[in-house]
Amino acid sequence: MKLVRAVISIVIFTQVAAFAQDVSLYDEPGIIGSVDTSTVIYSWTLDRCYIDLERVEVDTNLETFQVRNPALQNYTTVSTLGNYSLPTISNLFTERERDQEFILVNTYYPFMKHFWNTTYINTRKPFTNLTYLSGGSGLNKEELLDAFHSQNISGILNAGFHLTTSRALGQYRFQKTKNNSFKLFSSYSGSTYSYHFNININKIIADENGGIYDDASITDTVYAYTKDIPTLFGGVDNPPTHNPDAYREIRNINTFMIHELALRSAGLQSDSIDKRRFSFFNPALAYIFYLDRTINLFNDKDPSAGYQGGLYRDILINENTTMDSLYYWKLYNGLRIKFQGRQQNRYFIDYAYDLMHYSMVIPSMNPEADTLLRHWFISQEIKLPSINYNNNIYNSHISSGFSRIFANRIEMDLFGRYYLSGYRKGDLHLSGNLKFFLSRSRTGNHLNIGAVNEIKTPDFLYTHYASNNFIWTNNFKRTVLNHLSIILSISSKKFEFKGDYYLLRDFIFLNRDALPEQYHNNLSVLVISLARRFDFWKVTTDNILAFQKVSNGSVLGLPEMVANSSTYLTHLFNFRTTGGKLLTMIGFDLKYNTKYYADAYMPPLASFYRQNEKKLGNYPYFDVFLNIQLKRLRFFLKLDHVNSGWIDRNYFTVLHYPMNERSLKFGLSWTFYD
Question: 3-state secondary structure string, 32-68?
Fold first, then answer.
């Protein structure tokens, strides 16, 4: 709470300072990009370097309104444990996050609020959106309430909040999840001073059932009630009593702020600059800060169930109960000097220092039952029966970027980062991008060519980790990544082609024992995707088709083909007597991927790992929906997995974790501009 009070104090201080500048709505936009104040609502996110504004649309459209799961909104298709807010990973390699600093929480990221997925707003009118979703009934009900509000305090000073609370009981035994998250955000875009700020709080409590005990319970047997299907982990579930044997709790708080100050001569206005002096740049200083703090708790009241079921290799500390605790935080401070020109021409250089702390605690409640007397871990002697380990690491690095537009047709972006000292000393990241616009307006059709070269020290938890079921110390080599990409977008044809080629060396993955392993040969991944929208009369179909080829499937499992399609008919009903209008969309969504050795899931690690027991896939998922919009009220009615039971029942995306059967869901969203 002290941290929250401190952050709120900083926001109040910066807002008071902003008021003192008395800048009108139509003054020159701030240093961090350019905000279009001519529209009612202008929304954007910051790129990963916190320097560019990336325009995003506010969620007020009827299209795709029926897709409310964040993982399905952001990924083409997914591998998931089934229920809302349970671990999820994309089936497309290009959509997977390469940053694995905190691997025990990454699979929950699609359902969490962080500073890197914050949307900032500039609005002429206060904007509020309230959303309620519900599905299922009785013991498998799913509910979500979402409240978003943003308003401008002055012309270019905005503040808002975003609250989401969800509760999903799941269709199978011990799948219950509770997810509460809150975001407070603010931005100011003045001509001399600007800032972006947000604070996010997340809390997730999720059951772990270890998967169903026998896949034949799904494929060869029809249960009248899915919660009668045996699962590996048990417990007590007699409503209102719910007491699972295994569950996870994640508590996260993260905050971010960037302040920028333009260093300009007094009285110098941008419109007085001689446009022929193309080399003129305005200097600016920036300070970047963020803190990301997470507590991850895993409890298993009966570890013997996982051991006897073949899921765990070992029980190392306590055979009676597991109470793994991992505490992690990262503190980042960066200073930047930037030279900003016209048309987003710029150059910048950063110096940053980050500090990370890892704390692992595994208590033992029955010391005499321990079979190990000692274990060497990170060059320190740890004496069992319990483990209490703390580690601090730091990094310092410099970064530089250059962006230039040539002849109003070609945009070039270069970025580089080198780690000077600390845990990642000697690591290097280089990337470049060329964007060719096919029209002088620099909108619509374009060709984008990019390249990345990265040399990276393995993330800390891949090299050092301790828990009741897993202890490892690895001396891995640096990983090397080379990535080439090409994007061709033709807006008039509503067509986009993407090609990505990755060449990785010393790639790290979780092997069939769920232990980190390094593949020392070259690993290549080719991804080609096509997106095409067709409009005929009142019928629209949006299609994404992707092909993937990986050189070694035992190291990295990917389906060769992934498809996502949405087809719907749109009709506007006009009521002459009342003058009312009702917009309706009726259609279906289809998701499909070919059969492959999909990953298995390890509950204590909350991570996916390789398996060669069973191929999964080659099963289509159909959803049928009806969307309705009346003025600012949107409503959807959707039948998920409508084809459940029509064909074979191999609807698994993760080993031993079946997808939900057919279920009816509805939702409504009300938007206010006042």
Answer: CCCCCCCCCEEEEEECCCCCCEEEECCCCCCCCCCCC
Determine the Cα–Cα distance for residues 259 and 288; give it in Å rounded to an integer: 7
Q: Which pair of structure tokens corresponds to residue 664?
A: 């009816």
**Among 203, 160, 177, 166, which Cα is nearest to 68's?**
166
Picking from 633, 601, 603, the residue whose alpha carbon sits closest to that of residue 616 is 601
Strand partners, 389: 360
Q: Which amino acid is at 245?
A: D
Q: Which pair of tokens denotes residue 404?
A: 């230039």
Q: N- to C-terminal Cα distance for the chain?
A: 33
**pLDDT of res. 14:** 35
**Burial state string for 403-420 with b = 16 or more CB within 10 A and e = fewer than 16:** bebeeeeebebebbbbbe
User: Is the overall model pTM greater than 0.90, yes or no?
Assistant: no
Closest-CA residue to 87 (of 260, 210, 228) = 210
Strand partners, 276: none
Pseudo-torsion of CA 336, 337, 342, 345, nearest 10°?
-70
Residue count (the chain):
674
pLDDT in tens, 491-522: 888 999 999 999 999 999 999 999 999 999 99
Stretch 610-637: mean pLDDT: 95
DSSP state of 383: E
Structure tokens at 413: 């972006």
CA distance 204 to 249: 6
Q: What would the two tokens of residue 588 be? A: 């279906």
Residue 601 has pLDDT above 50, yes or no: yes
Query: Over 50: is that where the pLDDT of 246 sits?
Result: yes
CB under 8 Å to 213, separation ≥6 — which residues?
Answer: 229, 230, 231, 232, 309
Tell me phi and psi for residue 17, to 5 degrees: -65, -35
Longest Cα–Cα distance in the chain: 84
Q: How far is CA 348 from CA 263, 278, 379, in A?
A: 14, 17, 40
Rg (CA), the chain: 26
Question: 580 vs 572, 573, 575, 583, 630, CA distance in Å?
Answer: 10, 8, 5, 10, 8
Is residue 260 within 8 A of residue 30, CB to CB? The reply is yes
Closest CA to 510 of 443, 441, 462, 451: 462
Residue 111 near residue 85 (C-beta atoms within 8 A)? yes
Q: Which amino acid is at 513?
A: D
| Two tokens, residue 180 | 């509460």
Structure-block tokens of residue 510: 């979780």
Q: Which of 30-34, 258-262, 576-580 has the lowest mean pLDDT?
A: 30-34
- CA atoms of 369 and 317, how far apart (whole Å): 8
Closest listed residue to residue 331, CA positions, set 353, 349, 350: 353
Q: Which of these, 483, 349, 369, 465, lies nearest to 416 by C-alpha position?
A: 349
Whether the Cβ atoms of residue 382 and residue 344 lie closer than 8 Å to each other: no
β-pair partners for 665: 135, 638
CA proximity to 483, closest of 505, 465, 468, 508: 505
Q: Indicate the residue type of 384.
A: L
What b/e string do you get for 77-103 counting C-beta neighbours within 10 Å, with b at 16 or more?
A: bbbbbbbbbbbbbbbbbbbeeeebebb
β-strand pairing of 53-56 with 41-46: antiparallel
The one-letter code for the residue type at 369 is A
